[in-house]
Every structure is written in structure tokens, then in C-alpha cells.
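Section handout 9: paired folding examples.
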Amino acid sequence: MSPHLRIGVALLLPFAACGVQWLLWDDWIKPYVWFMFFPVAFASAWLGGLVAGIGSTLISALLVWYVFMAQQFSFALQKPSSALSIVLFVGMGCLFSWFHERLRRALRSSVSRFEATFEQAAVGIAMVGADGRFQRVNRRLCAIVGYAPDELMALTFQDITHPDDLEADLDYVHRALAGEIDSYAMEKRYFRKDGSLVWINLSVALTRKPDGAPDYFIAVIEDISGRKLAEQRFRQLFEQAPVALSTSAHDGRVLLMNRAFTELFGYRLADTPTVADWQARVLDGAGPDAASQPDGWQAHQRAPLVEQAVLCRDGSRKTVLLSRIQLGDEMMLAAVDISTRKAAEEEVRHRNDELERFNRASIDRELQMILLKRQVNALAAELGRAPPYDLSFADAEPRRGAP
């Protein structure tokens, strides 16, 4: 009903009340002159607001004054109390009108704010019946699923939910309708109008009628396809990384282990569900020598990259480089097997030691030969013969600056 029509109906109500009261006046209502008009003033204010309420009140006052007060069909008043009652009625009617106008404005403002919030929200919002049918949807939800509002409200949430996610969603709905829960949240997939899939984060709350019966669900839908794609790419990179990787929560629970991690240490997630379990099996189990190393687990807690001896599940001992990376509330542990490199370094060191010993032995033999040749040359000189060996290279003084 338009505002002008409401005002028109409100201004006609006093005349209708006057006719009814006139019919019932002698037998039922007399002398209560305001009997039919107080409800009219209240109803007119509720129906048409301030203008209609005041107008209806003034018309009612004039009709009562002229028709029902002594003298009838005259504006002359026989009693001063009649004037007072007219003033009181007009005052009450104006008060009704003002009160209802305030209520109308507050309701209009509340509805306007709700409409703005509902339609302009950055997330999808829907009102869903207990049967799963969409009763109202906002523009953001329509953009997420690719349907026009009228098309979407002709469907149920079951129609656009991926079959693999539908059973869990329906289970939550049944529990909410049974009164076990008031709200729930889950991640699931919707089918868009073009047949493509979109990942959403769904938060649902059930509203009830005053008698406690289920009324409708309020669903908030957030498009998380971008996040899901990033998680999928991270999982692929995580699993395919040539470096052994694991992630753990702030409470020490191991969340993920990639294939390289399980291949390196031989343990799976079920074997070491916490960092403490993994430390006890792999690090502390490497023996007292490893535990006493300055670059052991305690050093690893402080340093970003440390070298650590470990004990694998098959009993083999390896040397790895361990590094911790903070990822928000989670911690990533990276490990690289450097056992081969350490073995090669040890082999090179061993060969260098052998070469050093060989060089020292060779120099000792040369010095002994020079000493023996000196003795032979000295014996030849005593016998009056020429020295058989030239030892000038050994007798020459080293040049200045020579090593």
C-alpha cells in the first residue's frame, strides 16, 4: 500500500467509526463519546504515521464534538469538562502519532541498514528454509555461483552442493533441526551455473520462531577458491620437493611429512605424531656422541642451520643439515642428507694424511742420503781422492726472500 493511500484510509477511519458508534449509540455506547475513537486514533497513527494520525485525531475530535456531545449537531458545549476531554483526546492522539512515527522511522532505518548490509556485504549471504530452498540471496552469493537471484531461489542448496560434500552438510542440518547444535561451519564445494567448481567456507546458524520451532537458516558463504588453489600448489611443491620437509603446530604436533622426509628417516606420521617423538627416535637415538655435539638438538633450537647426526629407522646413522622455518603459527623442518659428502670429506682428509706421512718419509730419506754422501765425500778426502758426490745444492745458502 502506497503512503498516500495509507493516509487516505487513515483519514476515512473517523467517519467509519462515527457511523458505527451512531448505530450503537443509544443501546450500547452512550454516554462514552470517545469509545470508538481512541482505537481509531491509534490505528490511524499506526497506519499512516504522524500526518495521518494527527489528521485523524482532529477529524475525530470534531465529529465527537458535533455529533455526540451536548448539544448534539452543534459546536456549542454545555459543560467545561467536555472541552477538557476534547483537549485530552487531541493530546493523546498526537502522542500516539508521534510515538508511531518514531517507531516507523526506527523500523525504516533498521530495515534500510539490514538491506544495505545484506546486499553490499563482501561475502555471500542467504536465508535458507528448513527444506534447503533459498528464500533470499544477496548479490555476492549470486556472483560466487553465477546464478541470477530468481534462478538461485528456484533451487535448493542440495542442487548446487558437490555430492562428496553433501552428506556432511546434511548431517549438520539434521543436528541443528534436532536442537543438538545451533550453528556450524565447514568447507565445501558448490557447482557454479557453468558447471565449474568453487570452494567456499560456509557458516550457518539456525533461527527459531518464538515457540522454539525452526524458522530458517542464515548462511554466510565466503569464496576460498584462491586459498584452496594456493594450498594445492603448496601441497604439490611440498610433496615433490627433493628436500625432506615436515611441518608442526605450535603445540608440537607433526602435521605433515613429505615423501623425501619419510624416505630419509624411515618414519611416517603415525610413527612420530609429535616433534618430541621424532626427536627421541631420530636425534636422541643417535647416541651419546651425537648428544654431546655442540651442534646437537639444543643448538638446532637456536640456530637456523645446523649439522646433526641422526639414527634412522633401519638402524643406519646419517649426518644431515637441519633448518627450521617459521610459517605463521606453524614450524617447518627441512633436512638434507649430507652423509655422502661427509664420507667424501673424510676420505679426502684420510688421503691427505697419508700423503703428508709419505712426504715426510721421503724428506727423511733424502736427508739421510745427503748425510751418507757427506760421510763418503769426507772419507774420500781423507784418502786423497776427489769427492764422488756433488753436494753444492745442499751447501748453498738459501737466497734472501726464498722460502
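Moving on to protein 2 of 2.
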Amino acid sequence: MLSNFIYRKDMKCIINGVIVAGAIFMVSCSAPKKVPYMVNAETIPAEVLAQVNPITEPVVMPGDLLNIEVSSINMTAVAPFNKGRYVNNEGEIVDNSRSTTANGKNESSTRYYLVSKDGDIDFPIIGKLHIGGMDKSQIEELIQSELCPKYLKEKPSVDIRFMNFRVTMLGAVNSPGVIVSDNERLNILEAITKAGDLNIKGERERIMLIRTNSDGKREIAILNLNDKNILLSPYYNLQQNDIIYVQPNKSMAQSAWQMNPAVAATITVVGGLSSVASLVIGIVNLNN
């Protein structure tokens, strides 16, 4: 009678243990159910896609690094309005903004304009210009109006380039890091591609985008790569200095979970007692 009681109790413990272990195994081994991007995107009507706002010019923000080139037919006349250049006594244009590194490459050290926290730059001869919140065409018009006709007889050409158009990708991607765009254009899909794509444990329905606007205020948007409407999102096209964080899905979070040492010790003890009980049952059955 006693042996049967011990046997039933032990079997119940073993069965419960197997059920718990099986549940943990199933949860830890479960794969993300939603892997495809932009499901059914082909069903978006063409007229709806046509209404999406076109790509806009990036606007200047504090901390931006700009390259501004002023040119005209008479390059001697506009040389003083290019940072790091001047005309010497012989009438030659001298560029002292470039230096040669140890590996023989030419690098510009003083040619670029760093936008201050107030959105200003210090332009040669003209002085302080407030360009924060402006796009490139607006800055070009501003500089042209400051130069002509006060300093130049003809309106010069002004070319502006963002030297820091970059975004940061981190989280559950295959190659996290800073992504630089040479053409000042980057959308969320291009950024993900350059980061080596999301790994299988990246949460595709909650891509966090952190953005600092030209007024210094931050905003956070959540993007769903499974949703076809991401193509219509105002956050589809990225801005310079955007941060994209790919959160881990439940599978990745659970695999990274660490058991409390006290719980682990308890499980070890219970496992040991279960083994002892099994041994006792075996001996009892042999005696019977």
C-alpha cells in the first residue's frame, strides 16, 4: 500500500515536471509568426500612392555640418566668400582649408560650417546668418541676396551639401551602426537594408524611430513593417540624425532571460529529490 502511494505521488510530480518543461521548451523555440514586410502592399490603390507627399529637402538643424560653395564666372570675386579661401597679393586664389594627412589624402579641416545651437553659421565677410529650419533652396536665396548687389554685381551660384546626413540603426539587426547617405536621401527600408536586414528575432511590428526636429524637440514614432501602410507613413522617409531601434521580439527576450539563482537551486534540489524517489520506487518494485 505504501509503495503504491509513493509511486502515484512520484508519477504525478514527474508528469507535472514534464508538462512545465515542455511548455518552456515550446515558448523558447517558437519562431516569429510575422516575418514578411508590407503584406498585401500591391493592393494599395495607385491613386492613394500618388497622393503621398514627395520627398522634401532636409532642413537645417543645430549640429549640422554644411559645405557651402559660392561660385561665378569671376571666381576671384567670390573667393573671399568661400570659407578657407582668400586672394593673395598676386591675385591668386589660395585655399588654406585643406591639409595633407600621413597617408597622402587631402582632408578639409576648416571648410565646413557647423550650425550652432541657435541655428546660426558665421559666413565670411557677411557675418552671422540664421539658417536653422531652412532647406537648401532657402539658404541659397538668402546668401545670394546678401551678396548681390552689395558685394557682387551679378548673382552668384550657391551649392550646399549636408555633410552629416546619417541615421543610426541599433537593436535586432544584423549590422547595427551609423549609416551615411551620400545623396541626402534615405527611407526606412533602405536603412534596414544597409543594416543587413532585421534578424529573425527582431520585432517587425514595433520599429521605434527617434527624431530630433529643427526646433530641438524630440518625437518618437512606432513603425510596423508588416503593415502595407508604412509606404504612406510620414516617417517612411528619414531625416538626418534619426535613430531607429529594432526591439527584440518575445522569442529573443525569453532566450535572453536569466533564471534567478535561488529558483535555479530550488529546481536542482527538486530534480534531485525526484531522482531519489524514482530510485526508491525501483527498489520497492524489485522487492515486490
